[in-house]
Amino acid sequence: MSSVVVGVGGGIAAYKVAGLVRLFTEAGHDVTVVPTRAALQFVGEPTWAALSGNPVSTEVWDRVHQVNHVAVGKQADLVVIAPATADLMGRAAAGLADDLLTATLLTATCPLVFAPAMHTEMWMHPATVANVDTLRQRGAVVVEPDSGRLTGSDSGPGRLPEVEAIFRIATELLAPPDLAGLKIVVTAGGTREPIDPVRFLGNRSSGKQGYALAAAAARRGADVTLISANTSLPPPPDVAVVSVETAAQLATQVHKYATDADIIAMAAAVADFRPTEVSRVKLKKDSAAEPDTIALERNPDILLELVAARSSGQVVVGFAAETGDESAEVLEYGRKKLAAKGCDVLVVNDVSGGEVFDRHDNEVIVLDRFGGQRQYPRSDKSVVADQILDAVADYRDQD
Ligand code: C5P
């Protein structure tokens, strides 16, 4: 049984959330409903109390002796906000804490799921877009709203996703601590290879999938070290972050932490080449230092090195960003790469047209050395992270 907080925002879709509370209680979870003042205009306190079987508070002034504004968030294993209104997401993104729900969001270290519902204009407004982006950058899952008929005569994106869909995503993030006792090393981001003091050769990796993987592994009880190359993401809770810039630095750190790791997941986009020489001065045009060409040399393939040094029982996970015209083609490249790299598990995604980089969602196929192949639907990178960890955990059981 997990402790689930359902935060209810002030939107007409609040009535549908009664069904969501039911799904959680029927699944055996201990549910605390925290409505905003505005939410109570739509559905009253007795409904939430009766459905959850727990007392309902809106203000930080209730049960002060129990320090309720901190306790609710700290005890939660999952917080689901539905309907997440534009105002509520704005307050959450700004870090305001002017009622019990927003105070809870500031004290919770568990996964947060926002299920938005609002008119299309509000959903598409740059302020809402920026707030959603901020929440996602911090690791929250913001589910895409459904499209269809809205409260008035209008229609478009902004409908509350079906409560069954919200429940499915939320449950995915409530994984048990099945990785407790395991040491996991995750690399994330994209390496930069300096050309001169100002410029570098880099790539488009945002680090989001690697960060989501590290966050999910820590949530599932693992001891996680995240080796992070050039990202601007906040460190996930309970994860030790080591920052690096170049492929050589990444290699040094990975090898250092890999020796006693149970699982190593190479999600970082590592540069294959680096400039042979790094200029100590800025290369200026129309000067003696103006280059005609930049000579490159190969970086070591860290994944290959890890496979060669792999200890018994250690699982090495590679990532392959492939482009292909057909998904069969991407899969074929993936199989070849798995064989060429010799890793245990390979996470393949189709990056044709830059479809993955910096997005909050992803669609992957997970291949393993025993011929296993799992294809997942497009989901938030946090959900994909749990899918990858499920596949790796199953692989360990077979190994
Ligand atoms: O060969 P390719 O770059 O497509 O392989 C991707 C996988 O190999 C990723 O897991 C990446 O982290 C790893 N890699 C590496 N060292 C390199 C290049 C890629 O470990 N020099």
Essential attributes:
single chain, Rossmann fold, 399 residues, five-stranded parallel beta sheet, eight-stranded mixed beta sheet, 14 helices, 2 domains, alpha/beta, binds cytidine-5'-monophosphate
Number of strand segments: 21
Strand order of the largest sheet: 12-11-8-13-16-17-19-20
Structural class: alpha/beta
CATH superfamily caption of the largest domain = CoaB-like
Protein architecture, described:
The structure is a single chain. The protein has 399 residues and is an alpha/beta fold. It folds into two domains: 170 residues, Rossmann fold, CATH 3.40.50; 216 residues, CoaB-like (Rossmann fold, 3-Layer(aba) Sandwich), CATH 3.40.50. Helix content is 35%, strand content 24%. The strands form six sheets. It has an eight-stranded mixed sheet with strand order 12-11-8-13-16-17-19-20, with helices on both faces. Helix 1 links the parallel strand 1 and strand 2. The site of cytidine-5'-monophosphate has 12 residues, from helix 12 and strand 16.
Write a brief caption for the model.
With 399 residues, the chain is α/β, with parallel strands linked by helices.
Question: Helices, strands, pairings?
Answer:
Layout: E1 3-8, H1 14-26, E2 30-35, H2 39-42, H3 45-52, H4 68-75, E3 78-84, H5 86-94, H6 100-107, E4 112-116, H7 120-124, H8 126-137, E5 141-142, E6 146-149, E7 155-159, H9 163-172, E8 183-189, E9 193-194, E10 200-201, H10 208-219, E11 223-229, E12 239-244, H11 247-258, E13 263-266, E14 273-275, E15 296-298, H12 302-308, E16 315-322, H13 327-341, E17 345-350, E18 361-362, E19 364-368, E20 373-375, E21 379-380, H14 381-398
Parallel strand pairs: 1-2, 1-3, 3-4, 4-5, 8-11, 8-13, 11-12, 13-16, 16-17
Antiparallel strand pairs: 6-7, 9-10, 14-15, 17-19, 18-21, 19-20
